């Protein structure tokens, strides 16, 4: 098959108690996997089957191929935005960039929490680097992803209900609080350094 489900960067029980193995078994093992399978079905015997995931996302623009391809990409980025030993505070250049754009880390976290909790319906809250070098919080709906534009994503929080319903029922705010206990600042710092 052209597109494959990347391995999780940790075991399915590694994010507990903040995010349970049961959530991971559904969110990664079923939802993420189904986006990969669906993308393979939709692109079978087309030139897209041999293109990179990023190219497919940019070329598809909208519709079922875009939705499944972008969800594959967004979820892989999301798993990397979490780490079993995550949480705490950012360091180094990332901390400086956050302070420059948001005042301080606490205000940034408050602002991204607000974004994630209030985003209407299904979508994603992102920390991105804008073309002018400043950091910003942006939201995308459904399968929307910053990589179709000029922002460089540093970190994301999946706020689809499937990300939290097993553990938290309808309490998205409790899930976002758990997100901060797992946030992978090192991944964000690597993304900041990359471009
Ligand atoms: Fe998801």
Write the layout of secondary structure elements.
Elements: H1 21-43, H2 53-60, H3 63-80, H4 92-102, H5 105-118, E1 123-129, E2 135-141, E3 152-158, H6 165-168, H7 172-182, H8 185-194
Antiparallel strand pairs: 1-2, 1-3
Helix pairs in contact: 1-3, 2-3, 5-7
Describe it for me?
- Helix 5 packs antiparallel against helix 7.
- The protein starts with 20 loop residues before the first helix and ends with a helix.
- 51% of the residues lie in helices and 11% in strands.
- The protein has a three-stranded antiparallel β-sheet.
- By secondary structure, the protein is mainly α.
- It binds fe (iii) ion (FE).
- Fe (iii) ion binds next to helix 1.
Instruction: Indicate the percent of residues in helices.
Output: 40-55%
On the 0 to 100 scale, the average pLDDT is: 97
Between the first and last Cα atoms, what is the distance in angstroms? 31 Å
What is the count of DSSP helices, taking H or I runs of 4+ residues? 8
Q: What does the largest sheet look like? A: 3 strands, antiparallel
Structural class assignment: mainly alpha
Shape: globular
Element-by-element helix/strand order: HHHHHEEEHHH
Strand content: 5-15%
C-alpha Rg, in Å? 16 Å
**Distinct small-molecule ligands in the complex:** fe (iii) ion
Low-confidence parts: none
Strand order of the largest sheet: 2-1-3
| Total number of beta strands | 3
């Amino acid at each position: 098959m052209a597109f494959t489900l990347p391995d999780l960067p940790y075991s399915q029980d590694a994010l507990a108690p903040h995010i349970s193995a049961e959530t991971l078994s559904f969110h990664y093992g079923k939802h993420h996997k189904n986006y990969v399978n669906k993308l393979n079905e939709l692109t079978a015997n087309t030139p897209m089957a041999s293109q990179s995931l990023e190219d497919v996302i940019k070329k598809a623009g909208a519709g079922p191929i875009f939705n499944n391809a972008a969800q594959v990409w967004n979820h892989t980025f999301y798993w990397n935005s979490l780490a079993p030993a995550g949480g705490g505070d950012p360091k180094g250049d990332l901390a400086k960039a956050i302070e420059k754009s948001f005042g301080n880390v606490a205000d940034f976290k408050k602002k991204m929490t607000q974004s994630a909790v209030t985003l209407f319906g299904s979508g994603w809250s992102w920390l991105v680097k804008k073309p002018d070098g400043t950091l910003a919080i942006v939201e995308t709906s459904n399968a929307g992803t910053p990589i179709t534009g000029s922002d460089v994503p540093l970190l994301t929080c999946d706020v689809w209900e499937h990300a939290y319903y097993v553990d938290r029922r309808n309490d998205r705010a409790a899930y976002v609080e758990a997100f901060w206990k797992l946030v992978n600042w090192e991944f964000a710092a690597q993304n900041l350094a990359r471009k």
